[in-house]
Amino acid sequence: MAYDVSTPVFEGPFDLLLHLILKEQVDIYEVSLSTIVNSYLAEIDLLQSIELDLATEFLLIASTLVELKARRLLPGRNDIELDDELALWEERDLLLARLLECKTFKDVAAVLASIADDADLTFARSVGADERFEALMPDMLEGIKPRHLHSAYLRAITPKPVPVVDLFHVSAVRANVADAMTELLDELPRVGRISFRRLTDGLVERLDVIVRFLALLELFKQGMVELDQTERFGDIDILWLADSAAVAVGAGPIDDYEG
Amino acid sequence: MSDIPPTDAQQPDQMMTELLAHETLDADIVRAIEAIVLVATEPVPTDQLAQLLEQPTALVNELCRGLADVYDEAGHGFQLVEVAGGWRYQTHPELSPYVERFLLDGQRHRMSGAALETLAIVAYKQPISRAQVASIRGVDPDGVLRTLSARGYVTQVAVDPGPGQAALFGTTPQFLEKLGLNSLSDLPPLAAFVPGADVVEALEHGLRAPDADPKLLRANMPRLTPDEPDDQ
Amino acid sequence: MSDIPPTDAQQPDQMMTELLAHETLDADIVRAIEAIVLVATEPVPTDQLAQLLEQPTALVNELCRGLADVYDEAGHGFQLVEVAGGWRYQTHPELSPYVERFLLDGQRHRMSGAALETLAIVAYKQPISRAQVASIRGVDPDGVLRTLSARGYVTQVAVDPGPGQAALFGTTPQFLEKLGLNSLSDLPPLAAFVPGADVVEALEHGLRAPDADPKLLRANMPRLTPDEPDDQ
Question: Rounded to an integer, what distance in angstroms lies between the CA atom of residue B17 and that of residue A163?
């Protein structure tokens, strides 16, 4: 169980974040994500076992951070639309509220622990009546039918559910790099040269843009396009090199990306 | 306690005070006797108390008698008595009518889920050792087995011939009677309800069946509807 | 008791005598309370005692408190306490070393930090869904909730009437018993634990988007390299 593991410092991603922010005075905009991941993985190493649940939950939190961080780092911050700015603040406030709530219950749990420790020093009597009252003892089997016994047996032999990684937070959208490559292989020979912004102009979903970018990198890897970026954060110039579109798509291993 | 008037009965119950001030020992020894006997499910032999408290048996015996006197003198509703070679608390005979009324008053004494599961395992897998029950349920069944045994639903039926000679448990005729069964073969057969072989195998291995549709799996699982008393 | 010397401690434990001489009732009422609670296997609600003894609840409550005081004053090794809405006998905390030695399974299971945090959230926010717990703890509480449920500390208390019909969890009387509390209102008030302004400020600062150039910021970046042990 992921939840049985803990260090004195933290147990989960929120704890980690709390710890990083409160103890280490970390500004999430200052600290690099790889640093967070590294220190996290270092802790995981200490535990000598990968706790998949914790790790995936951590990735969930981390991705929120990446998004916040990415917005900060992206150019043209002054051009950010008011809605985006508001959304950014909203996310920040939401995260703050969650961290505060998390901290509240961490603190109260510590008090409950000491209450429980005190209570553990006493032992309740639950002996029941002696044999003089045996005839009056309630019948524990009252109302129990053979079928109840049967279902209790099945319940007993059924192994407790094995923890599985829950994918509820993963949307069902499946962006396929191979498909994107097919599209590009159709489109690029016709236009010859195009900028990445224009290429992705009609795309609404950010994920689609990313997949197109990955497909483009794949084509670059295969020597079918030339890419050029004149300035940091600038537009990317795409030049079609291959004469023939007969290159087999999917000849190499191409990953699917689930969004 | 403002409305409890001071009485003329000035007979002080100072025996407890005296006991606790026994010059030859730690005051906690007397109190420890009270604490241990309070939670003991069986009468506690004087020897055992003496050993636990690291005191001479004769002294412990004397202290127990002293405590018994203290309770009697103070007029408590309980007594400390020596039965079957051990000490236990029991209610004063004069109060039996109240105790009986309480016991008849529908105590919430329903069988816990854990107790029922243990009983079911013993019923279906008898004769079975404590360790085997533990390995199925994943927890130490000691307390539950003791309770079930005290109620006369299970009993030791044999001794494991192997090394260790573990006690093997089985159900009693009283158990069958309570369930309205003529014999153990009248228990609902397991096979008729057991889910498909693939699912069983997956479950037996403690693994999730990777390609089994969860919905199908669920449909084959025994359903525990809320009206079943074991479902708490 | 010949070798128990009379002491100078002449503080008479006459409270029991006084209780028994309570002018408005049969002396047996007080003793009956002792007898009933002694044979009960779980805390006996004041109401139930009152009904069995045909006495006003307020009086019974007062008598129980009186008895608890009597035991305390006399220095007994047991206590009468009100837990989870009922009265029970339990051992005095000072004697836990002896009792643990006697009960071989006396070692209590300490709850993990994760379990306690989840339990705290359920206790204060009940009825609460799994997803709501998850959003507070930041991790999937499934395993913890299952463990807490198996221990009997939490249970499904309702179903969310909204879409999805999520199971809503709440704490059980066993939870109160585990903590030795009489009711949920005995939990420390949550308001006392809301982080202070300094913490809020630290967190806010940590989440603030600075106006400075990211490259400058990087130079100031706190180093959290793996070789720096988090030694707290």
Answer: 57
Instruction: For residue B101, tell me if it sits in a domain.
Output: no
Report the predicted TM-score, pTM, of the whole model to 2 decimal places: 0.59
Three-state DSSP class for A21? helix
B48 shares a domain with B31: yes
Q: Using the beta-carbon criterion (under 8 Å), do C38 and B140 form an inter-chain contact?
A: no
Chain B nearest-CA distance from A123, in A, is 7
B134 and B176 in a common domain: yes
B12 to B7, B23, C20, C208: CA distances (angstroms): 11, 20, 13, 71
Asked if the structure places residue B106 within a domain, the reply is: no
Residue C123: which of C188, C180, C167 has the closest Cα?
Answer: C188
Chains A and B form CB pairs within 8 A to the count of 124
Are C180 and C120 in the same domain?
A: yes
Boundaries of domain holding B84: 10-94
Q: Mind listing the pLDDT tens digit for each residue in A142-153?
A: 778 888 888 778
pLDDT in tens, A120-137: 899 999 877 887 887 776
Residue A230 has pLDDT above 90, yes or no: no
Assigned token pair, B131: 């360790």
Supply the ipTM of this predicted assembly: 0.68
E strand segments, chain B = 44-45, 78-83, 86-91, 128-129, 154-159, 167-171
Those chains having 3 or more beta-carbon pairs within 8 angstroms of chain B are A, C
> DSSP label at B151?
T
Residue C103 lies in a domain: no
Q: What is the DSSP string of C33-86?
A: HHHHHHH-SSPBPHHHHHHHHT--HHHHHHHHHHHHHHHHHHT-SEEEEEETTE
In a domain, C229, yes or no: yes
User: Are B155 and B170 in a shared domain?
Assistant: yes
pLDDT tens for A159-199 read: 544 434 434 334 444 567 788 888 888 888 888 888 888 88
CB-based contact A39 C209, cutoff 8 Å: no
pLDDT grade for B168, boundaries at 50, 70 and 90: very high
Q: Does B66 touch chain C (CB under 8 A)?
A: yes
What lies within 8 Å, CB to CB, of A133 at 6+ separation is B96, B99, B100, B103, C39
Which residues of chain A neighbour C181 with C-beta distances below 8 Å?
115
pLDDT, position B82: 94
Q: Which amino acid is at C59?
A: L
Residue of C3, C11, C14 to mutate when probing chain B, most B C-beta within 10 A? C14
Please indicate, yes or no, whether residues C156 and C169 belong to a single structural domain of this protein.
yes
More confident residue, A48 or C217: A48
Other chains touching C, judged by 3 or more CB pairs under 8 Å? A, B
As a whole-number percent, the residues of chain B with pLDDT over 90 amount to 35
> How many domains, in total, are found in chain B?
3
* CATH number for the domain harbouring residue C135: 1.10.10.10
Instruction: Write the pLDDT tens digit of every residue in C77-124.
Output: 999 999 999 999 999 999 999 998 887 655 566 788 888 999 999 999
